[in-house]
Design a protein that fits this description.
A hairpin with a 5-residue loop joins strand 9 and strand 10. Among the domains are: about 40 residues, no CATH class; about 130 residues, Tetrahydropterin Synthase, Chain A, CATH 3.30.479.30. The chain is α+β, with helices and mostly antiparallel strands. Helix 5 packs across helix 7 and helix 8 crosses helix 9. The termini are far apart. The chain has twelve helices and eleven strands. The strands form four sheets. Strands 6, 9, 10 and 11 form a four-stranded antiparallel beta sheet that branches.
Length: about 375
């Protein structure tokens, strides 16, 4: 052939092909399959008695394969897992953590989801861990912005904690395709429904526990209706604020509402203090008037009875009764005044000074008594 002396075939020296390059040998050479089979047969002949496969050798190989197949049914369930055994692809039973056994494949197989681990799902925010800066929170407005019952917008970030129900592992594995996505969608819908039924004022102030409880119950009932096999352990509100664009104005409105409520509370406190006092005074005046009425009526009744008794006696003895009434009246009148009694007979005969300081006598009667002069001293020693 004309190209036999060129040392490279019809494409010239160097073994290059029609595209200008020959076979590349820079990479590793793949193993020869025939060589691997030949070596495996040599090792098997050395292990088996007689150096070749016989009836006994096939039996030993079959027994070894059966033993290995049977041992493949052992499996371990970790402490935070629950096992589910499937028989021909269908749910058969649950198994607890620890070493367990199922019939080897393809008769039975086992699934071990982490059903005892508490899972946390953040909605409205994303928490990222950074070794240098620490944990950082990123807001997700499309999940957190919600409309309240009084047509206000509120920014709600919350977390949902959930686990797999102990008796619902099969439902968790086979009834829902994406457990975390299902819980997230149901939780967001439940929070929007609860927020949409309430005004913004209680949402931002004292209704946090009520909202958490309502959302928890709504999520759990929805997941139970789906047969998800998931148990909600806690719903925790992380942040409840108005949107960032109007938060300053909203805080001013809230401060004005707080001032109005404080003024109302102070007025109510004043009313609660004054009204009982006024009612007490009214009751006191009413009771005093009632007592005065009863006293006046009793006195009038007594005087009437007394007058009637006197009148009966007067009809029997008018002179005696009239004299007695006169004396009793004079006793009452004169008994309250200071009296000076002069005997006209003694005053006419002398011995009595015509001028007598009557106004000073009552004052002297209150002073301690002095020794009166004897008649002899008063007359100047005359006998």
């Amino acid at each position: 052939m004309p190209w036999s002396n060129q040392g490279g075939g019809p494409w010239g020296s160097g073994g290059k092909g029609p595209w200008g390059s020959g076979p590349q040998s820079s990479g590793p050479t793949p193993p020869d399959l025939e060589e691997i089979l030949r070596r495996g047969q040599d090792k098997l002949r050395r292990v088996l008695p007689g150096g070749h496969l016989g009836g006994r050798g096939f039996i030993l190989l079959a027994l070894a394969a059966i033993v290995l197949w049977g041992l493949s049914g052992f499996f371990r369930v970790e402490p935070d897992e629950l096992g589910v055994v499937l028989r021909f692809g269908r749910y058969d039973r649950d198994v607890k953590p620890g070493l367990n056994y199922h019939l080897p494949y393809p008769i039975e197989s086992a699934l071990t989801p982490k059903a005892l681990r508490i899972n946390k799902l953040d909605i409205g925010m994303r928490v990222s861990e950074d070794l240098r800066r620490g944990a950082s929170v990123r807001d997700v407005p499309e999940e957190s912005l919600m409309l309240t019952g009084d047509e206000n917008i509120v920014d709600v970030d919350f977390s949902v904690f959930w686990v797999v129900q102990p008796n619902g592992v099969s439902d968790y594995l086979f009834n829902i395709q994406n457990p975390e996505g299902t819980v997230k969608a149901v939780a967001e819908a439940a929070m929007r429904e609860v927020i949409g039924r309430r005004d913004i004022a209680p949402i931002l102030t004292g209704a946090r526990q009520t909202i958490e409880g309502a959302v928890h119950d709504l999520i759990q009932s929805t997941l139970d209706h789906y047969g998800a096999g998931i148990q909600i352990t806690q719903v925790q509100l992380q942040k409840v604020d108005p949107p960032a664009q109007v938060i300053d104005s909203f805080r001013d409105v809230q401060a004005a509402r707080i001032d109005a409520e404080r003024a109302q509370n102070e007025a109510q406190t004043y009313a609660n203090r004054v009204i009982p006092e006024a009612r007490g005074k009214v009751a006191q005046i009413t009771q005093a008037a009632e007592a005065y009425k009863q006293q006046t009526v009793a006195e009038a009744t007594g005087q009437t009875a007394r007058f009637l008794q006197i009148y009966e006696q007067y009809k029997k003895a008018p002179d005696v009764t009239r004299q007695r009434m006169y004396l009793e009246t004079m006793e009452k009148v004169l008994g309250r005044t200071n009296k000076i009694i002069l005997d006209q007979d003694i005053g006419g005969k002398g011995g009595i000074v015509p001028y007598l300081p009557l106004n000073a006598l009552p004052q002297q009667s209150q002073s301690p008594p002095r020794q009166q002069p004897t008649r002899t001293q008063a007359s100047g020693g005359r006998r």
